Amino acid sequence: MTFNPALFRQQFPFFIENPNIVYLDNAATTLKPQVLLDSTNQFYRSAGSVHRSQYDEQNTYIYEKARTEVKQLINAENENCIIWTSGTTHSINTVAYGLLPHLSSQDEIIISEAEHHANFVTWQQIAKKSGAKLRVLSLSDNWLINEQQLIHSLNNNTKLVALNFISNVTGATQAIKKLISLIRQYSNAMVLIDAAQAINHIKIDIKELDTDFLVFSAHKMYGPTGIGVLSGKKVSLEKLTPLLFGGKMVDQVSLENTSFSSLPYRLEAGTPNIAGVIGFYSVLKWLNKWDRIAAEKWTSQLTEQAKVRLSQYKHCKIFSSSNPSTLFSFVFKGIASSDLSTLLAEQNIALRVGEHCAQPYLANLNTSTTLRLSFAPYNNQEDVDKFFQALDKSLELLDIE
Question: For the segment 236-266, what is each residue's pLDDT rounded down to a tens digit?
Fold first, then answer.
């Protein structure tokens, strides 16, 4: 389907029920289309679980078809390499604690200053538990990982490198394919890519990237909250010790011992978020109807326009990558970001303010908080104009030129 911003916007009940709100916090979570609400409601009006009895075969069929949709989305090895989790954080922890038995004080883990807390704190704590050394890569002036520093940090003891694809603070897009190539060249380390911000904006081919693990959340791409994906190479996923134990993930249980199921079930203990998976399946099928390249171009153009207009405010400092992006952060000198956010919220402007779950990154930027604008294909010119009208009124109230 040819991309039409107005038609795309009509798919989201939020705009009908909240016509006066300008939603510019899409990096946090996207709005939900009607197709998600319908499919979720339909599941809750049915009976049963999945993989339990003959009468729930229809739910089970759709539940497993969702793996096929995700496999096609990221070109995964096969459906068994699609693991359902509750979100990106759960996915990262599944890998981290799954590798914990294989880590020792002789090993090293590499992350960067640009990581979300989910991909920073997790590895920091795993390093403390295992005794492994944690190496944190600094960033260059354009907030990209310094390739030479990465090379110098890699050695025979490097066990894992965990990096984000796109920053949730500046929108900087790392040259992930090249970075992974360097990691392969200079070490035998496993690689985890946090694609939470990238999955809705970049066509990801997991085989082409050659990453061991890829993680993301459904709610960043119009899907439900409480659903995430852990994917990667089958050989790498099979190395993970299950994070959770319980029903469905076992093969045989005796009084003395337990054997576990094969992938993906061995990493999916307990009753899953069935409604979430089925809802995500409906969203992915719906997304396939749209020209996502055109949608991304539209979104990037709106973002760039907002960034250019904001750069004309002399007291404003913008934190943004040079590459096309759909988000950026900013601060106003002499104004608390929380105060400005409050005034904007009173004028129905929804954006993000705070530390963005990335305190080390903000320390690198020499600030404690920022405001963040993040756009989606359903945003339009009127949204941009209303933001600047509200901003001008807020600055006037704060007596800032």
Answer: 999 999 999 998 888 898 999 999 999 999 9
Catalytic center residues: 357
Top-confidence residue, 239 or 2 = 239
Q: Are 236 and 98 in contact (CB under 8 A)?
A: no
pLDDT of residue 159: 98
187 and 86 share a domain?
A: yes
Q: What is the DSSP string of 30-93?
A: ----HHHHHHHHHHHTS---SSS-GGGHHHHHHHHHHHHHHHHHHT-S-GGG-EEESSHHHHHH
187 within some domain: yes
Residues 12 and 83 in one domain: no
Q: What is the mean pLDDT of residues 205-212?
A: 98
**One domain, residues 231 and 331:** no
pLDDT in tens, 325-374: 999 999 999 999 999 999 999 999 999 999 999 999 999 999 999 999 99
Residue 278 in tokens: 């089925």
Write the CA distances from 90 to 119, 201, 216, 395, integer angstroms.
Answer: 11, 22, 10, 40
* In a shared domain, residues 273 and 298: no
Structural domain span for residue 343:
5-24+291-397
Q: From residue 374, how far is each of 31, 220, 222, 319, 384 by CA, in Å?
A: 12, 12, 14, 13, 11
Instruction: Note whether 344 and 254 are same-domain residues.
Output: no
- Is residue 164 within 8 A of residue 135, CB to CB? The reply is no
Task: Return the pLDDT at 51.
Answer: 57
Whether 100 and 212 map to the same domain: the answer is: yes
Both tokens assigned to 92: 């990262």
